[in-house]
Each structure stands twice: as C-alpha cells, then as structure tokens.
C-alpha cells in the first residue's frame, strides 16, 4: 500500500553510496576562534591565581583575629584594658567609671572593687549580677549581663586589671591564665544573686540587702516546663530548636531575655499570618493564649549566656558604627537608639538584639528588606533594612553577636493575661 | 587516519591524562589533608540513618555544600559556613549533590535540631509548609492504636493526624533524624582547608565598587 | 602558599598540554603531515573481490552492503539491541514522567518507598542512560562498523551474549535502586556487584568490534569509526575505575564521580551520537562530508577537552580551586570540536535541505545534530563562573542535560533506528505517518520541556542568590515550570510509544522491501 505512494526523488542516492570526506582546508575562522579561546583560557588561569590569593589573604586575616583573641599574654596591657572598658563597660558605668546614681553603680572608688580586687571584678564580669546590691552605701537593683561568653580570658584580664588598678588604687592585676581558672569554675554559673551572694566572695563587704527569693513557682511552672521541654501532642518542644537555655543557633533566634510583650506579639503574628515562618506558624496555632503568655514570661525572665559568635565574615568596625551611630549617608539610625544601650532592648516593643544569632539577624534584616517580614512598628525596620547593603547586614549581625547577652527582665515587665489580650487586639488593628 | 592501534593508544592516553588531573592529583592533595579538626566520625545510628538518606535519594534535591559568602547568601539562610574538603572525610558515598530543589542540608543539625520537627516533616512536609514539594515518607512510620513504651509518637496537627490511634516512628525514621541532627559544621574550618576560591576576586571587586560609590556620595 | 603555587603550575601544565596537542595536530594537518584520504586511498576502499557493478572506477564511493552479505550478519544482534533499547526507553520515560509529576503533585505516589521521587528519578536515569541510549548507540555501532569496514561482523554469538548480560545487568540494577539498594553516586547508582555483570557484557561488545576492525577490508577508517572505536575503549575504562569498591571516599569520590559522569556523556554517549550522525547524514543525502581535516580537529579536540570538563559540576564547592578552573577552561575550549563537527555536518545538510523533506530518519538525525551544537555551546557558557553561580543547583541544569542526552543523542539514535530497521528486516514501516507524528511529538514536547526548565531554572537560581527572598520563594515560583516540564515530558513519552508501535507494526508486516530500492524509509 505504502509503496505506491513512495515517490522516488531523482536526486536521491542509491543504497550503495558510501559516506566519505572531502579534502578541504580548515576554514580560517576556526583558527581565530581557537586562538581567542586559548588566550582567554590563559587569562582565566591568571585570574584564578589572583582569586586564590585574595581568599588566602582573607583567611589569614581571620586567623590572625582568632589568634590575638585567644593568645595567652601573662601581663595585661593597661592601654588595651582602657579601650576594652570604653567599648564594653562605659555605656552604663560611664567613661571614668563614675556610674549613674541609683541605676548603675560606680566602679571608680567603689568599695566592692577595693575590697574584692581584680579577682572579684573578674567573677562579676564573667557571670553578670542582678538584684539588690549596695555600693558605697547606695543601693542598686539592676541587671548586668554576663560577659564570660563574649570576652576572651585575655580581654577579661585586661578589663579587670584596668578596673582594679587604673580606676582604683589597687596594685594586683590578674593574668589571663588566672581568668581561665575562674572560667573553669564559674563560667557556666548563673549571675550573682545581688550583694547577698557577693558577700560570700568578698571578705568584709559592708552590709548588703537580702537577696530576692525567686518568685514562688505557681501552678503554671510545671505546664510551662512541659511545653518548653516536651511540647504537646501536636506541637514540638520550644527547647528542641531554641536550645535548653533559649540561646538559639543559626537562623533559630535567641529568646532568653526578650521582652514578654514582644514575644506575645510575634506569636500572635505567626498565628494570624502577619509574620511568615511555617514552623512557627504551626507552633503558634497549636498554643492557647494562656500558653503563649506563660511561655513569653518564661523566656523574658531567662538569663543565659550568649550562644552567638560572629560567623558571617562581617566587618565588626562597620557593624559597631551602624549599631552605635548609624549611617546618615544612607539614612540609617543607630540600632541602639531604639533597641537600647548595647542592644539590650526596650520593653515592650523593641527586642534585645545583643547576643542574637548572627544568621537570624542577617536573615531577618534581609526579609524586611525584601518585604517577606513586615510586622515592625510603623514599618521602621523595612526602611532601615532596605538601606543596608548585603555586607552591612552581615556586619551589623556579626557585631551584635559579639555583644554580651541581654539579662532576663524583671517581673514588672512581664505580661499579664489581660494586657496581652489588648496587645493582641492592637496588633490586629495594625494589620 | 587508517591505523587502529595508534588511535586506540592515543585515545586511552588522553583519558589517562584526564584521570591524572581530575581524580589522582586532587585525590592525593585531599587525602594528604585528612579530616577537619573538630569533625567526628559517624556514630552507628548516624551511619544507619545516612544509609536511609542515600537509599531514599535525598541527594537528588538536597545539596550538602554551602557556598562561600563571596558567592551566595547561604550563610545568611542559616545553611552554615562554606564547607572544605576535610569536612567530608568520613563520607562514603559522598552526598555533595547538585540540586537545590530543597535547601542545603550540610548544617541542618544546627538549624533544625528538633527531632519532633524532623519526624513531623518526614511524615508529611505539607503539615508544616503548605508550599513544600518534598515527598512524604509515610512508610518510615507505623500507625498504632496505642503507643508502646519506648515508641516515639509523631506530633501531628489535626488535619494530618489519624482519626484514631497514633503515628509512631520506625527505626529507619529515627536513624535518619539522628543523622540529620548530627549534621553540624560549627567548628572553625582549618586555615588550609580546600575549596573553590574562584569567587573571592569577583566579590572583592564588587565590594570595591560599592565602597567607591559610597565614598562619592 | 607553596602548595598553591605548585598546584597552580600543575593546572597551567594540563591546559598547556591540551593546547600544545591541538596546535601540533592543526600544524600537522596544515602541512599534510597527517595522511589524508586522497584519491588513491579512496580507490583502495574497493577491494578487487567485489563485483564490477558494485565497485566500478566510474562509481567511486559506492559499495553494496546488502548484496555483499554484511548487513545480514549484523541484522540479528542489531535488532536485539534495538528491541531492548526501545523497551528501556519506554520504561525509563514512564519513570521520568512519574518523577516529574511527583515534583508538583508530591502526594500523588507516596504510598510506597519504591515510588518516591528519589528512586523514580534514579530508575529513570539508569534506564535511559544504560538501557536505552547505550544499547541504541551500540545498535548503530554494530550496524555501521561492518559497513564502513566492508567486512561482516565477527563473533556474533559473543555480541548476543553481551546483550543478554547487559540487559540482565540493567534490569537488576534498576530493581536494586527501586528497592533502596544503591551505591549512592549520581550516574553510578547501580550496585557494584551488579556492575560486574554490566562490565562483562561490555567486554562482550568490545572484543567483536576489535576483531571486526582487524579484519577490515578498507585501508582508511571513516570518521564514524574513530568515534565508535575510541568510545568502546573509553567506556569500559571509565566504568571499571569508577565502580571499584573501597577506593574512593569523601571529596575525592566527588571529583571521581563527576569525572565519570561527565565522561559517560562526553566519551561514550556523545561519540555514539556524533559517529552515527557522521555516517547517516552523508549516507542518506548521498553527498560527502565537508572536510576531512575539520573532522580530525573535531575528534581529537573532543578527546582532549571533553575528558577534563567534569569538575564544572562542583564549581563553588569544597574542591581545590585549580581543579575547578581546569574544568571551566576546558569546558570553554569545547567550542573548538563542536564548531568543527557543526561545520562538517550542518554544511552537508544545509546544502541539501530537500533531503529533510524526503527522509524522516534524516529529520531526526539533523535535529539531533543541531541539538549537539546547541547543547555544547550552552554547556560551555554554563561552565563560566558568572553564569554557573545562577544555574548550578537549579533545574536549568536538568534542561541542559536533556538537550544533550535527549534532543541530541536520543533523537539521532531514533533516526538511526528508523533508518536501520527496514534494512535489517527487509520490511517497510506500515504507518509512515506515525513516524512524522513521533517526530513532532518529540520536538514539540522537548521544546516545552526545555523552555520550562530553562526559564524556571534561571528564576529559581536568581531567587536563591537573593538574600532578601525566603527560600520558599524559589520553590513556589518554580511550580508552573515543573508543570510545564510534565506536559513536555508527557508529549515526549507519547512519541516513544509511537516508536514502539511502529516497530511492532513492522514486525507484523509482510516482507515488502526489495533489495535495490531507494534509500528512503517513507515519504509523505
């Protein structure tokens, strides 16, 4: 049937034709292309060797930073101590350690420092301190974060030596290896519980007020512990991602010490879809209002060491500039303007950002910049984040990760059932 | 050409040269470095879990090789620092992967350490992320009337939970999660760690340009 | 620092060796140091034993493979290979289609581990790479080699044993993968224990080809022969080195993995496709290939450059920088052999476009040859660091892989099947219209497939590079393109079913073909 339709084209070869190749020269353009590609290839090799040199240099620099941080120098350098003091301590205690009456105790001419020396300063810097405390007869009731997790032994030795011998007339400095010994014992301990506990460390300390006993654990404490450590039938435990101490890791944020009202608002935003994170939306939808408030209060009151270290190769100097002064050439205010001195947060709206996980901070800034997160008051964070370059976001995130952690808030800042309900209403009006 | 032997010999010699440059030379260089300090061999449970990972073909959607900051925002996504050759010293078969239909998993143990989350997600990814296109792995789990002692019950939202009884994880699922929880590369990379630094120059030049633009403002 | 410099030197050395080799080759060709098949040579192709009608001085470059009995010997192993290849094509396409559907309908087939995406996709790759493309390519090799050497295929029994072993190996391999037993490396998933069967099968293919080559009755080896004879040596070496258990681990295993995986394409499937096109294009048209000198450059530059491109699959990864650059540079140098092959094949077709209308097989083969040029150009550009950073981990790469392995290799081999089968069986395809349908289903299906993945892949890559976009965005934006891929894949699979129908229909048809008929399979 088909063969009828087959038309034989007269030009078609017969079946016996045998493929062969003609003898023609290689066309000239082939030579040109080959030569051009070869030259390009050599150029690529040169460029690669430059690229490896750039990368090697960057790595060497990081290495050097790491080494200077961990170097064990026996004699602390007073100049370095002064510089570290103004970077880490002066925000609260003043440039000359004069303190703020009623809020931050003085370090210059302080009886605690005089009696305890560099040793006691190290203990306090390492663990932090909170609660009632008398210094030079004046009473204080604040919270100082633990610096043990953000400063190296050498840095603490330099600060403690400077406070003991530079701001006061002590003669004994402390070496990095002695600091290391103290770290071994008290590095993981909770902050000093006010002057009462400190009296046990420092002989002859004038009379101290009684320590506050921790608030009696109500019937909810067990339920909260259950939620934090085991979760419910439908919801995973908080600690399984945020860590036992609420310190977070990578893009999982640190929760310890964040304002309770802020935490409540975020959980409600996750519930409503005003803030996007699939896992947290899942969790928040599985929690009751009561549970949300209890958990927020639990994490707000938590003091835990920093779990963050700079890890995004950010420029710490640039990060510090953005955090402390902002950069008006790009219209960015200082982070600390809203988030409080040293990024410790201002309840109820502005969360602490000190010691926050750098990947989390950089990622959230990027999400604000891209519009995927849009639940900040007055849309402030969107404008700021859009102005920051990719490198700026990493720099500020890394700098914040280098700061001491936010101490847990006082019971006064906790959220009660009624206020949270109105807060929830407010934030729903925002949307 | 009209002789077969020279053709065959030259063809094989070229392949031998390629093998030398692509397999033998880098193999010697990488072998000389050994494992990164801080990297631990897989535990027995992790190794079993890794076998499940390999047999399910997770590799075809998930890479295990975060890129450098000079190239991509992997670190900002929480995927971890750029990996170096020594980070894979105990891997056989390697699972570097070539696709990111799903996210990179090199540092998943730091980013999502929750056993409960991982089990829910393996049982039904869409119980957590409605947009997810990851397969569900119900056959790694068992439907029981009641959990026996020692069973790990999967936490599920009402929409995905069985009407009666509970879903418990089989050993394969538990092992797989143990493997994922162990995927941590938080230790510092060795200073001489091997990786492709070909993007460092491009990034440095871009940085210079933005700096210059800023300075002129 | 010291080490980096030494290795930089090594890298430069490798590239310079490749360049030098290419320069020497071109110099030798330009100065006629390489023996060219001149008129004497051409005459020497025709042995005196052949009948005057077949081989007359006024009809050079003619030889009747049918009457000399050569085709009749090759016919049965070639038909076995084609039947097996088409079976694996359908089997593999269905798995590919299922895997594609699973990517946008993830709960479609989650009932059993055997049907999970990670396994379906892997069964697809192994079925089409080792079951379809390798066997269809071997069918072309066993058909063409005896023809260009003017001698019948030797050791036919051994070839048939090889076919049996090979298919047992592929079947056992894909069953192992479906049930979770895998070596876990891309392209090397089949467990090494089963690989032994495949290696034995491969050995059964190599020996008869070498024997046939030794008995050849022509002096000059036609260009298809270079590609085929080199490929059948390269593949076993690659396959055995890559599958030795216990030798490779860690990142070294990754470099070995991509050295192998890219060479399976570059030194196995590509030579099979290029060699087949080199034979059938002039054969069908009846005009010679443009230039012998250019084909020499094309062949040797392919061997030199293609063999070192594999590490571009690890750009930006935890492998030494010099190694990546080595592969990037060689990937870009691939322009040279590809341009050479393009000149030879496309010029021959472009001067005889009428033949595309007459011959369906030529349509398949020329579409394949064009795709080879496109895929290789795309591959060279994709290897550049600046481009690769976008496309590397995305579905763009999958589109590129299919442009090479499907639009090029598979289409050429389908054309070859349509050309070979009537001559091997002495029958016509009873429904030539279905061949055209098959062609257009594949071409249109592939266009949908390729455009979907190429556009979707670029968008996916850009989204993942943008820190201000959550990862979810890259998945959500991809979904319509994944659906497009399923549509394209469905059309392609339908085309493959038509191929099977055509072959089965021919099997039932009566013998109609006469020996001295025309070259064409069908005309519309």
TrEMBL record, chain B:
Keyword RNA-binding part of the UniProt annotation: no
Record carries keyword Transferase: no
One matching Pfam family: FixO
GO molecular function: electron transfer activity; heme binding; metal ion binding
Gene3D superfamilies cross-referenced by the UniProt entry: Cytochrome c-like domain
Keyword line: Heme, Iron, Metal-binding
SUPFAM superfamilies: Cytochrome c
Domain Cytochrome c, residue spans: 44-184
Organism superkingdom: Bacteria
Annotated protein name in UniProt: Cytochrome c domain-containing protein
Lineage: Bacteria, Pseudomonadati, Pseudomonadota, Alphaproteobacteria, Rhodobacterales
TrEMBL record, chain C:
One protein family per Pfam: COX1
InterPro entries for the chain: Cyt_c_oxase-like_su1_dom, Cyt_c_oxase-like_su1_sf, Cyt_C_Oxase_1
Residue stretches making up the Cytochrome oxidase subunit I profile domain: 82-524
Gene Ontology annotations for the cellular component aspect, listed alphabetically: membrane
Keywords annotated in UniProt: Electron transport, Membrane, Respiratory chain, Transmembrane, Transmembrane helix, Transport
GO MF annotation list: cytochrome-c oxidase activity; heme binding
GO BP field: electron transport coupled proton transport; oxidative phosphorylation; respiratory electron transport chain
Spans traversing the lipid bilayer: 6-30, 78-101, 161-178, 190-210, 222-246, 258-281, 293-315, 321-343, 364-381, 401-418, 439-463, 487-509
PANTHER family listed in its UniProt record: CYTOCHROME C OXIDASE SUBUNIT 1, CYTOCHROME C OXIDASE SUBUNIT 1 HOMOLOG, BACTEROID
Protein name per its UniProtKB record: Cytochrome oxidase subunit I profile domain-containing protein
Species the sequence originates in: Thioclava pacifica DSM 10166
């Amino acid at each position: 049937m088909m063969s009828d339709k087959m038309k034989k084209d007269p030009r078609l070869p017969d079946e016996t034709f045998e493929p062969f190749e003609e003898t023609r020269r290689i066309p000239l353009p082939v030579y040109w292309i080959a030569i051009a590609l070869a030259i390009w290839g050599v150029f690529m090799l040169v460029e690669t060797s430059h690229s490896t040199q750039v990368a090697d240099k960057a790595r060497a620099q990081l290495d050097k930073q790491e080494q200077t941080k961990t170097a064990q120098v026996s004699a602390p350098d007073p100049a370095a101590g002064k510089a570290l003091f103004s970077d880490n301590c002066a925000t609260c205690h003043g440039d000359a350690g004069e303190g703020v009456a009623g809020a931050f105790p003085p370090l210059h001419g302080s009886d605690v420092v005089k009696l305890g020396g560099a040793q006691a300063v190290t203990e306090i810097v390492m663990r932090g301190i909170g609660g009632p405390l008398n210094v030079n007869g004046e009473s204080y009731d604040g919270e100082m974060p633990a610096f043990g997790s953000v400063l190296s032994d050498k840095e603490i030795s330099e600060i403690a030596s400077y406070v003991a011998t530079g701001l006061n007339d002590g003669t004994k400095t402390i070496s990095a290896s002695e600091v290391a010994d103290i770290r071994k014992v008290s590095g993981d301990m909770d902050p000093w519980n006010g002057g009462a506990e400190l009296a046990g460390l420092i002989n002859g300390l004038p009379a101290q007020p009684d320590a506050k006993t921790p608030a009696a654990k109500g019937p909810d404490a067990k339920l909260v512990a259950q939620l934090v450590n085991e979760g419910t039938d439908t919801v995973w435990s908080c600690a399984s991602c945020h860590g036992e101490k609420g310190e977070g890791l990578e893009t999982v944020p640190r929760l310890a010490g964040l304002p309770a009202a802020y935490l409540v608002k975020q959980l409600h935003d996750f519930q409503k879809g005003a803030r996007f994170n699939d896992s947290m939306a899942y969790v928040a939808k599985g929690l009751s209002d009561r549970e949300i408030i209890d958990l927020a209060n639990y994490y707000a009151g938590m003091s835990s060491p920093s779990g963050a270290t700079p890890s995004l190769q950010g420029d710490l100097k640039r990060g510090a500039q953005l955090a402390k002064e902002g950069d008006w050439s790009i219209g960015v205010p200082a982070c600390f303007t809203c988030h409080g001195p040293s990024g410790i947060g201002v309840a109820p709206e502005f969360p602490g950002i000190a010691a926050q996980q750098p990947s989390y901070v950089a990622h959230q800034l990027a999400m604000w910049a891209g519009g995927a997160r849009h639940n900040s008051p007055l849309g402030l964070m969107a404008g700021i984040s859009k102005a920051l370059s990719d490198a700026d976001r990493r720099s500020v995130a890394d700098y914040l990760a280098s700061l001491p952690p936010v101490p847990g808030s006082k019971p006064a800042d906790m959220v009660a059932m009624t206020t949270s309900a109105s807060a929830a209403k407010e934030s729903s009006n925002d949307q | 050409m009209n002789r077969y032997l020279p053709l065959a010999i030259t063809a094989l010699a070229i392949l031998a040269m390629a093998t030398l440059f692509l397999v033998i030379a880098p193999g010697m260089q990488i072998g000389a470095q050994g494992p990164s300090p801080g990297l631990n061999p897989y535990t027995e449970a992790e190794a079993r879990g890794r076998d499940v990972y390999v047999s399910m073909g997770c590799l075809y959607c998930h890479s295990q090789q975060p890129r450098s900051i000079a190239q991509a925002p992997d670190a900002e996504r929480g995927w971890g620092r750029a990996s170096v050759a020594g980070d894979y010293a105990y891997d056989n078969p390697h699972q570097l992967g070539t696709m990111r239909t799903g996210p990179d998993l090199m540092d998943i143990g730091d980013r999502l350490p929750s056993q409960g989350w991982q089990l829910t997600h393996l049982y039904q990814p869409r119980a957590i992320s409605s947009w997810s296109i990851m397969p569900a792995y119900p056959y790694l789990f068992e439907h029981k009337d009641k959990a026996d002692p020692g069973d790990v019950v999967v936490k599920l939202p009402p929409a995905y939970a069985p009407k009666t009884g509970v879903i418990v994880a089989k050993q394969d699922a538990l092992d797989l999660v143990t493997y994922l929880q162990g995927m941590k590369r938080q230790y510092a990379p060795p200073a001489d760690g091997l990786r492709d630094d070909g993007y460092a120059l491009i990034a440095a030049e871009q940085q210079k340009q933005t700096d210059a633009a800023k300075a002129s403002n | 620092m010291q080490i980096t410099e030494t290795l930089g030197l090594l890298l430069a050395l490798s590239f310079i060796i490749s360049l030098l080799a290419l320069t020497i080759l071109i110099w030798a060709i330009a100065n006629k140091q390489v023996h060219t098949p001149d008129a004497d040579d051409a005459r020497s192709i025709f042995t005196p034993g052949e009948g005057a009608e077949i081989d007359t001085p006024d009809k050079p470059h003619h030889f009747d493979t049918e009457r000399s009995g050569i085709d009749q010997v090759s016919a049965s192993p070639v038909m076995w290979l084609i039947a097996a290849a088409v079976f694996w094509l359908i089997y593999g396409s269905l798995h590919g289609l299922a895997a594609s559907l699973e990517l946008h309908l993830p709960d479609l087939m989650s009932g059993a581990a055997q049907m999970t995406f990670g396994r379906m996709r892997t069964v697809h790759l192994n079925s089409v790479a080792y079951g379809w493309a390798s066997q269809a390519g071997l069918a072309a090799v066993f058909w063409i080699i005896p023809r260009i050497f003017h001698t019948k295929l030797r050791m036919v029994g051994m070839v048939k044993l090889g076919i049996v072993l090979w298919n047992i190996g592929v079947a056992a391999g894909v069953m192992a993968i479906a049930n979770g037993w895998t070596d876990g490396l891309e392209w090397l998933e089949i467990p090494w224990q089963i690989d032994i069967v495949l290696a034995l099968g491969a050995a059964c293919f190599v020996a008869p080809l070498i024997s046939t080559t030794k008995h050849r009755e022509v002096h000059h080896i036609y260009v298809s022969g270079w590609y085929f004879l080199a490929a059948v040596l390269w593949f076993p070496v690659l396959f055995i080195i890559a599958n030795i258990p216990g030798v490779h681990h860690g990142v070294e295993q990754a470099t070995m993995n991509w050295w192998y995986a890219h060479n399976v394409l570059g030194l196995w499937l590509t030579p099979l496709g290029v060699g087949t096109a080199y034979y059938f294009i002039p054969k069908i048209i009846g005009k010679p290939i443009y230039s012998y000198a250019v084909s020499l450059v094309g062949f040797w530059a392919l061997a030199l450059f293609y063999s070192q491109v594999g590490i571009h699959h690890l750009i930006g990864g935890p492998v030494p920088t010099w190694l990546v650059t080595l592969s990037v540079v060689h990937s870009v140098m691939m322009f040279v052999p590809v341009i050479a092959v393009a000149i030879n094949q496309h010029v021959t077709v472009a001067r005889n476009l009428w033949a595309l209308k007459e011959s369906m097989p030529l349509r398949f083969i020329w579409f394949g040859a064009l795709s080879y040029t496109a895929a290789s150009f795309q591959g060279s550009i994709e290897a550049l660091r600046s481009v690769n950073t976008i496309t590397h981990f995305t579905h763009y790469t999958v589109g590129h892989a299919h442009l090479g392995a499907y639009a090029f290799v598979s289409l050429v081999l389908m054309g070859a099947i349509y050309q070979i089968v009537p001559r091997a069986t002495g029958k016509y395809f009873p429904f030539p219209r279905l061949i055209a349908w098959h062609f257009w289903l594949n071409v249109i299906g592939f266009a949908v497939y390729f455009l979907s993945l190429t556009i979707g892949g670029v968008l996916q890559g850009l989204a993942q590079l943008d820190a201000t976009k959550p990862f979810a965005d890259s998945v959500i934006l991809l979904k319509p393109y994944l659906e497009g891929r399923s549509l394209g894949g469905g059309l392609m699979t339908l085309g493959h079913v038509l191929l099977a129908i055509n072959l089965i229909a021919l099997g039932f048809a009566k013998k109609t073909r006469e020996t001295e008929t025309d070259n064409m399979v069908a005309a519309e």
